[in-house]
Amino acid sequence: MISVRGLRKHYKVHKRPPGLKAALRSLIHRSYTTVKAVDGISFDIRPGERVGFLGPNGAGKTTTLKVLSGLLYPSDGEVTVDGHVPQKREEAFLKKIMLVMGQKQQLLWDLPPAETFELNRAIYDVPQAQYKKTISDLIELLEIGDLIGKPTRQLSLGERMKCELAAALIHQPRVLFLDEPTIGLDVAMQATMRTFIKEYNEKYGATLILTSHYMDDVAALCPRVIVIDKGLLSYDGGLDALVQRVRPEKRVVLRLSEEVDAGRLSPLGRVVTHEPGTAVLQVQQEAVNATITRALSTLPVMDLTVENAPLEEVMSELFAESKARRTAVSEPVPA
Ligand SMILES: Nc1ncnc2c1ncn2[C@@H]1O[C@H](COP(=O)(O)OP(=O)(O)OP(=O)(O)O)[C@@H](O)[C@H]1O
């Protein structure tokens, strides 16, 4: 469905020196630097896949999604989306895709969402019968029946995001690029959006690429993740396999009926947190059974669970790894 080969997107940026004199001089003698936002990445995505596209701030995620949706020309490389070259912006391509950006809106501010929906129906030439069916499904799934008649400016952020998503899906895109679709939403609304996105993917078999800094989104939606950092690919594979590779240790979470000294916990594993009533231990996978047996026999355990390390930690460790690799490569070799 999506094929990306050696994609590069370099931005040429005007260097603006500090100080008025230098700034005035730079109006005549302009100098430029190159920002390598995406610097040679390749991946393939199969139809119907849900893929998390992750990386630290400035990694090149939005740039890649903009290239895939035809908003930006690549500097180099080959990209196809369902057989189309995105930058040609063919009508058939535009009808198949949608880019939803959590930080930008497509709903018209002074009009009710219902009017943007109608506008999108006309733009995408959606037959009336299909439009009626789709819109009533979307209204039901997203519970926006009461909202779509109010001017957009009167909606809360979460209400607006639900309507944004509905507007984006009126033409039933087969490929959805979601750039931070849950940004700024409260926890309950994030969960609603996640459930809806998953249902849309399952119902229509749509292919989905999602960027998000909320790891709950990623854990709930993306069995596969592609991680980029400074424009380079640092991981492409299963989310579970990534956790296994970066953090194979397990967390044993203990709920305790009475306070225990730290000295009684430390022989069982590395103490990650220790608060009144709870303690979290980190142990090697093969030591989990022994730790549980020992905890149950030596501590006042009320409840016990075994978990993976939080995804946020896995990601920051992965980002730190690739930063360390880059630093090692760029350091001069001693003479
Ligand atoms: N129009 C532009 N002109 C110049 N540089 C740009 C432009 N757009 C993005 N960049 C730079 O390209 C790099 C990648 O930006 P991009 O927005 O793709 O990152 P991102 O991974 O989406 O980051 P974030 O998680 O912060 O949204 C950054 O260094 C950014 O400053």
UniProtKB/TrEMBL annotation:
Superkingdom, taxonomy of origin: Bacteria
Organism of origin: Myxococcus xanthus (strain DK1622)
Segments passing through the bilayer: none
Keyword ATP-binding recorded: yes
Protein's recorded name: ABC transporter, ATP-binding protein
Domain ABC transporter, residue spans: 22-255
Keywords from the named record: ATP-binding, Nucleotide-binding, Transport
GO MF annotation list: ATP binding; ATP hydrolysis activity
